[in-house]
Each structure stands twice: as structure tokens, then as C-alpha cells.
């Protein structure tokens, strides 16, 4: 009786890789039944191999940038030449404002041509080869930073911005001119103030009238410790410019005991303890007419700027930048209070040209 050792029969597929035993360098991962096709081979564009085609693309892009420049000039011309009340018929929109239509059309064309020129430049002349890079940490090591700088320089060279001067110069021209459209629109903020902020309706001989009754004021109408709001005579509340004028000319009168007035110049500008100040806060223009009788302080309710009316209306507290301007007053032959001129300083908030 012979003995023998049982051995497993060889597999019919011995020598072949099973799916779980595939080589790690195999193109198909063990857990992915689909192979990664990768990027397709790069195919050069016509402009990459034909300099004449590249020149045509350069001229096309430059033409778009030139059209943008002309459209910006047209925008400015429309703004200057077309009356604001001009109505025109434009199919299919019907009757529209000629100015708005002209501005919208020219500005839209200017921006479109810049965008279209940039896209055409990128698609026909800049490098279009796709490159895949693995993500890296947010803080790149020095060698990666050096690589990025090298790639940036390479990209700048491949964009051909240094080589194709016509394209570069036309683009710079369009980008330089198109901001003029925005500058022109700033004109709609209104006319320049020039000297308007420095002058009010007050002048020598102007009567001071009560804000509530519109009647001229006499010294005896103002008692010690009181505050009276007033305006210049002749300023009609129904006039279309009333709001603009009263915003500069509104005043308040207080009467103090002469010995309570600390500023000698302020006392000389008043009459028998009656002082006249602009009531327009020098912060943002709110009426600073909350009066505290015992301290002679005027408070602005908007941001709590506080002025000492017994000391030339100097600022005691708050964001106001300078004292309330004082109006020099006297009494005329008829016994009414009147101004001896305009404010020495512009009333109201500070502005750029203020000294």
C-alpha cells in the first residue's frame, strides 16, 4: 500500500492576475473599472503655426479695443450734445429718453468690445495648453514659489503682450479711456458750489425776523435765558430756493447777562447781551437748538455736539469740528434787530475747500 501526499490541483488560470491582485502600476485601479483617459493630446491652433493667422487675430483684437475707445468718446459726446429732455422713438422700445438710450448704447458697446477683445486674445493668441497640477498646502515651499514665478513669467511671455505692440497699445488705450465715462457721470452730482457755501442771505441792514411769526424782532422780544429761532427778512418759505437758503441762513438768538459772556469779541458782536449764532451744527448740519439756560450750552440732538454760547459757541463735546459762526447784529433807527453783514465763517459742516 503506497502512500502519497495530496496536493492542490493547479488552477486553470494560474499565472493570470486576478482583479484584486493587479499590478499597482496598472492603468486600471483595482477599485475602479474605468480607466482614467487623462488629457487629450494638445493640438496646436492655426495661429500657433501660421504667423499670418496670428497677425489677423491681433488686428481683430486691436480693432475691438479701438471700437471701445470710440464708443467711450461717443458716450461723452452723447452726454454733452443730447438734451436731457429729448425723447426719441426707438423700435421696438417705443418712445424713450434720447440721452439715456445714447449713454446706455455707447457705454455698453465700450465695455462689450473690451471684453470681447480680451476673450478673442485669450482664445487665439495666448497659450491654451492644459496642465494638471496636484493640490499642495496653502503655504507653498520655496521651490514651489519659485516654480509659480517661473510659470508666471512663462505665461506673460506666451501671452505675447510684449511682442505684439499693436495689440498691447490698443488695449491700454481702451482701458485708459473707458474710465472717463464714470468721471463724466460725476457731473450729475450737481453744479460745483464755488462760493455759494461761503455766502448766505445775510447782509448789512437785513432785518432779523422770528421763524414762527415772520415778524421783525426787537430787543425787548428776547428775554434773558430764552432762545429764539430766526431767519433773514425777505426769505419766503414758498420760494423754490427756500430750503437751500434757510439751510445756510437759519439762526438762533439768545440773551445772556452781559457779565456772563466770557468772550469779549462775541459780546461786541451782540447787542445788550443778545447774541446771534448760526443754528446749523458744524458736524452734519442738524439744528443745534436744544438750549440749557443755566450753563448757556446749545446741544445738537443728532450726535450730541455741545456748544458754549457764552464763550463764542466753542465746541465742548461731540464730533463738531468748529464753533457755530456768529452773526454781528445791531438795532436800527426803528428799534428792530438787524445784521451788520454776513457770517465771517461759512455756516454748517466742514467741506474740502474750507480754510
Automatic annotation (TrEMBL):
Task: Report biased composition (Basic and acidic residues) as residue ranges.
Answer: 1-26, 42-53
**Membrane topology reported for the UniProt record:** Multi-pass membrane protein
Record bears the keyword Oxidoreductase: yes
Which InterPro entries does the UniProt record give? QcrA_N (IPR045603), Rieske_2Fe-2S (IPR017941), Rieske_2Fe-2S_sf (IPR036922), Rieske_Fe-S_prot (IPR014349)
Q: Which residues cross the membrane?
A: 61-82, 102-122, 166-186
- Annotated region Disordered: the residues are 1-53
List, alphabetically, the GO terms of the cellular component aspect.
Answer: plasma membrane
Location in the cell reads: Cell membrane
The residue ranges of the Rieske domain are 248-338
**Primary localization:** membrane
Question: Signal peptide: which range, if any?
Answer: none
Please list the GO terms describing molecular function.
Answer: 2 iron, 2 sulfur cluster binding; metal ion binding; monooxygenase activity; oxidoreductase activity, acting on paired donors, with incorporation or reduction of molecular oxygen
Write down the CDD domains for this protein, in alphabetical order. Answer: Rieske (cd03467)
Q: Keywords in UniProt for this one?
A: 2Fe-2S, Cell membrane, Disulfide bond, Electron transport, Iron, Iron-sulfur, Membrane, Metal-binding, Oxidoreductase, Respiratory chain, Transmembrane, Transmembrane helix, Transport
Pfam families, from UniProt? QcrA_N, Rieske
Quaternary context:
The cytochrome bc1 complex is composed of a cytochrome b (QcrB), the Rieske iron-sulfur protein (QcrA) and a diheme cytochrome c (QcrC) subunit.
Q: What does this protein do?
A: Iron-sulfur subunit of the cytochrome bc1 complex, an essential component of the respiratory electron transport chain required for ATP synthesis. The bc1 complex catalyzes the oxidation of menaquinol and the reduction of cytochrome c in the respiratory chain. The bc1 complex operates through a Q-cycle mechanism that couples electron transfer to generation of the proton gradient that drives ATP synthesis.
Family under the similarity heading = Belongs to the Rieske iron-sulfur protein family.
Q: What is this protein called?
A: Cytochrome bc1 complex Rieske iron-sulfur subunit
| Taxon lineage | Bacteria, Bacillati, Actinomycetota, Actinomycetes, Kitasatosporales
